[in-house]
Specification:
The structure holds two protein chains of two kinds. By secondary structure, chain A is of the alpha+beta class. Chain A is 58% helix and 13% strand. Classes of the chains: A alpha+beta, B mainly beta.
């Protein structure tokens, strides 16, 4: 038997067994007398215009669910369902409810299934949802520019300073970068785990996190390895890695800001922008730390800044216009995974060529200072 | 429905959170409400197939469920005037005897369009048959329990202790005969008294029991309205309210009455979980005879509240034609199904 056939044989047997299952359906034996547990998950509740609520839902449960009635604030209400009231497993539906919602008030939407099971979602503040038009696209872009792009570029301006200090202090700032990235990584991970409660169970929120956190660093590593062959990573390559990691993280950050803005929960005061400026400027420092002994061209520096900062703008667009908890969990996990990769590469490089890495007290202090700086500047973001 | 917001499947809280800034405001449902109108827009426009009956246009000024309940299952309009006088015979003593057959059966009923409730019923409907007799009649109720749980029938009224349907539990497959004289005259109720009582009542084992006075009441257009509710998700709170079970039925199918005619409503409350239920009549006032036990004294009002098990006889006449709402004056109950309409027609010329 050929090797390929040996590999395929178990799959063929599995396919045969599945076919037999479908024909004979022995699961009847397992089927209980009680009704199946129904599950419909709210993906998004939007207020596209006065007098209209649009609800996006997905069936993440084991059995089809039939939408029978809709309540808004404990009142049965007229509505339409697209494409069908009977929602199969993993299918999604859009409900339109002509309800005169009150701007700024909280609101509760309840779906009643044919078996009388209810699915309830509270909206903290009903407010006009952003439409994809020039005005909102520009607003979200500016938002991303202020909290993502500008701070990163400000941070890049530390390069001349870094060029003047000794290797020992450069290692300190690299350690500082590690501390900063650790903070961001844990933050992204926490955000992802918090969101898993909103993800339909069939989409396995925690599974997405594992995929993102473990898969992303391996992919980045593999791609980098293929691109540069066996040669050691250059300082610019290292900076690029950090910029990609921070960029992916900023995408998640933009998502959070955009979606919060869309539901009217972010008061965009000057203190908020101030906080993000302080907080994210340190990200720029992290990017240029490996370049202290290089002479990168301005073009390359600008490219690094754009890679790290611009994803914030894409994040605000995605979060503001089409929020999905499932996609957000994945984005946040990819961001965290990218940071894992950056930290591992930085850590290894600092331990190379006779350097002591984090065993050096100054470097260890750098990590702690990085954490403290992120924490402290984070206080200002608590607008 | 009430204040409870228990965790249920599909009920998601919390939200995407990036640092304390976002976390602070986010507790409820951040993120859910993001826009995306335009993204979804292209898919909308044609409605899904409606439920049984019409998913007709929404009447301005009326909340309501979508679609209509299948009348093959339970016709609430016919039920209004379905009085069961039993099979009548005369005893050697000259006393009138009325014999009734009541069977407890488990049955799935449609309580709002497309919403099905696994009920326990007397004779397959909720409420059960409206038992009607005259004061002093001999009543013989042959009860069979064809359900899956022990049940009884507890009649309100004056009778011997062993006919009270509390201690004489009737197991599934067994029978019991309730025999007593109808007293006092008025409007009463009957219901299962097996424990847990709350469960047996809210599952649907109750009905109306009318004892007419010997001299009768004035000729009128009579109807029965039993206020009830259904906890479809078993969270101890009603999702559906109605008179005679079907949410919004008399709003979608207004009750036709004639201008100037006397209307008599036998109004009872068997709503579980809520302390009170109420009835409010639009464009009119009614004479309220509490428990219907006195033909003389009445109260003149347009709103009455009744606790569970309480009931009253209402009499009124409309002076003007047109459509008039009647509903619970708890707005919440009204919008969860307990709303109806009287369609007052000008008198037909003979």
């Amino acid at each position: 038997m050929a090797l390929a056939a040996k590999g395929v044989l178990p799959l063929l047997l599995l396919a045969g067994l599945l076919a037999l299952f479908v024909r004979v359906d022995p699961t009847d034996v397992f089927r209980a007398a009680f009704p199946p547990i129904e599950e419909l998950t709210f993906e998004r509740i939007a207020f596209p215009q006065p007098g209209l609520i649009r609800v996006h839902m997905v069936n993440g449960g084991p059995e089809p669910v039939t939408v029978a009635q809709v309540m808004v604030d404990d009142a049965y209400w007229e509505h339409t369902v697209v494409p069908d009231r009977e929602v199969g497993r993993l299918e999604d539906i859009v409900l339109e409810i002509p309800y005169p919602w009150v701007d700024g008030d909280p609101l509760i939407v309840t779906i009643v299934s044919s078996t009388g099971v209810t699915f309830t979602q509270e909206v903290a503040v009903a407010t006009q949802s952003p439409q994809i038009n020039r005005s909102y696209v520009v607003t979200f872009a500016l938002l991303g520019l202020y909290v993502g792009v500008i701070p990163v570029f400000l941070g890049l301006l530390w390069l001349p300073f870094l060029a003047g200090v000794s290797q020992r202090w450069i290692d300190f700032f690299l350690s500082f970068t590690v501390g900063l990235l650790l903070f961001l990584g844990v933050d992204a991970l926490e955000g992802a785990f918090e969101l898993t409660g909103q993800v339909a169970s069939a989409f396995q929120g925690v599974g997405l996190i594992v995929l993102g956190v473990v898969g992303t660093p391996l992919v980045i590593h593999a791609v980098g390895r293929v691109a540069r062959g066996d040669s050691a990573i250059t300082p610019l390559g290292m900076s690029m890695l950090i910029a990609i990691g921070i960029g992916l993280h900023n995408l998640g950050e933009g998502l959070a800001i955009g979606s919060s803005y869309a539901v009217g929960e972010v008061a965009l005061g000057t203190s908020l922008v101030f906080g993000f400026l302080l907080h994210n400027t340190t990200e720029g420092l992290g990017i240029v730390a490996p370049l202290a002994r290089s002479r990168p061209s301005y073009v390359k520096l600008v490219a690094l800044g754009l890679i790290a900062g611009v994803p914030t703008i894409f994040g605000t667009w995605i979060g503001g216009f089409s929020y999905s908890p499932t996609a957000s969990v994945l984005f946040l996990a990819i961001g965290a995974g990218a940071i894992v990769q950056v930290i591992s590469v930085l850590g290894r490089s600092m331990g190379s060529r006779g350097r002591e890495g984090f065993k050096d007290p100054l470097n260890a202090a750098g990590v702690v200072v990085g954490l403290i700086v992120m924490y402290t500047t984070g206080l200002f973001v608590a607008a | 429905m009430g204040d409870k917001q228990d965790e249920k499947p599909g009920q998601a809280h919390a939200g995407i959170s990036r640092r304390d800034l976002l976390r602070s405001g986010v507790a409820g449902a951040v993120g859910l409400a993001a826009g995306a109108g335009a993204l979804a827009g292209s898919r909308l426009g044609n409605d899904a197939p409606t439920l049984s009956g019409a998913g007709s246009a929404h009447d301005p000024g009326l909340a309501g469920a979508k679609g209509d309940v299948d009348p093959e299952g339970f016709d609430a309009t016919a039920f209004l005037k379905n009085f069961d006088y039993g099979s009548v015979s005369t005893l050697p003593s000259g006393q009138i005897q009325r014999e009734y057959e009541i069977t407890a059966v488990d049955r799935e009923i449609e309580v709002a369009p497309g919403v099905y409730f696994a009920a326990w019923t007397y004779n397959g409907t909720v409420p059960g048959p409206t038992i009607r007799c005259t004061e002093g009649d001999r009543l013989k109720v042959n009860f069979t329990n064809a359900g899956s749980h022990p049940h009884t029938i507890h009649f309100h009224g004056i009778h011997a202790a062993e006919m009270d349907g509390v201690f004489e539990i009737v197991e599934p497959g067994q029978s019991f005969v309730y025999e007593f004289d109808a007293a006092p005259m008025g409007f009463h109720l009957y219901h299962c008294h097996a424990i847990p009582l709350k469960r047996h009542v809210h599952k649907g084992l109750y009905g109306a029991f009318i004892i007419d006075p010997r001299e009768g009441r004035p000729e009128a257009n009579e109807m029965l309205m039993l206020m009830n509710g259904f906890d479809t998700n078993f969270d101890g709170d009603n999702e559906v309210y109605a008179v005679n079970t079907v949410a919004f039925h008399y709003q979608k199918h207004p009750i036709e009455i004639e201008q100037g005619e006397l209307v008599r409503v036998y109004l009872g409350n068997m709503t579980e979980f809520d302390v009170l239920n109420s009835f409010h009549l639009h464009g009119n006032f009614f004479r309220l005879y509490r428990t219907g036990t006195d033909l003389e004294r009445y109260e003149f009002t347009d709103t009455v509240m009744l606790c569970q098990g309480e009931r009253a006889v209402l009499e009124f006449t409309y002076d003007y034609p047109g459509k008039y709402m009647f509903h619970a004056h708890q707005s919440e109950f009204a919008e969860l199904g307990w709303s109806g309409i009287f369609d007052v027609k000008p008198p037909t010329l003979v």
